[in-house]
Amino acid sequence: MLKIRKTTVLVAGCLLTLSAASYAASDWLKGTPEQQLKSLAELQPGLGTVMIEYANRFTTMYYAANGGNWGMADYQLKEMREIQEVGETTRPGRAKMLKSFESDNLDKLAGTIKGKDLKKFNATFKETVTACNGCHVANDFAFIKYQLPKASPSPTSAKP
Ligand code: HEC
Question: Which protein residue has the closest C-alpha to ligand 1 atom 38?
Fold first, then answer.
């Protein structure tokens, strides 16, 4: 009985400590509301972070299409467009190039996905990879070269 009570006290103590910690979680946010907003804005993902998701979804899209999961391929492409918007917002200097990449390449890929045309999809995918890496070269990031991984990074690309 005493043992149980001790445990109860311990658990309650832990919970108290936890809730105290969560109250303190935003204590780092200092200054006026404007300064706090600026601190938060500076934490928004830049293009490097966006590109990690971009590449991940791009690869998942490839394996989804090649596994016959066209719904997933379509979804990943849409999510690429979504995350691209974050990059366009936080790095406005790159927005124009990103937008033209989207209309030249992603729109074309979308057409092949809609038509469930694997041959056309794979040919367009290859062209798109060249365009991805072309943009890296044009922006002095020639050492960033997308190469198709041997497997999907996602456990969701296979046909359900
Ligand atoms: C508008 C130009 C542009 C296009 C188009 C573009 N990228 Fe990028 N990418 C960049 C830039 C610039 C960086 C470096 C980001 C930075 O550090 O600011 C980058 C970085 C990356 C990285 C490295 C991320 C990291 O930090 O590890 C990967 C991976 C990547 N891109 C993949 C792709 C893929 C895949 C595509 C095509 C589907 C693509 N990119 C299209 C400009 C572009």
Answer: 132
pLDDT at 2: 45
The Cα diameter of the chain in Å comes to 72
Task: Say how far apart CA 65 and CA 111 lie, in whole Å.
Answer: 13
pLDDT at 11 over 80: no
Q: Which residue carries 């600026």 as its tokens?
A: 38
- Other Cβ atoms less than 10 A from the Cβ of 19: the count is 10
Could you read off the pLDDT of 59-102 as tens digits, one per residue?
A: 999 999 999 999 999 999 999 999 999 999 999 999 999 999 99
Answer whether 159's CB lies under 8 Å from 69's CB.
yes
The Å distance, Cα 51 to ligand 1 centre, comes to: 5
Instruction: Please indicate whether residue 146, judged by its CB atom, sits closer than 6 Å to ligand 1.
Output: yes
Torsion angle in degrees (nearest 10) through CA of 103, 108, 109, 111: 120
Residue 135 Cβ inside 6 Å of ligand 1? The answer reads: yes
Candidates 75, 48, 51; CA nearest to 61 is 75
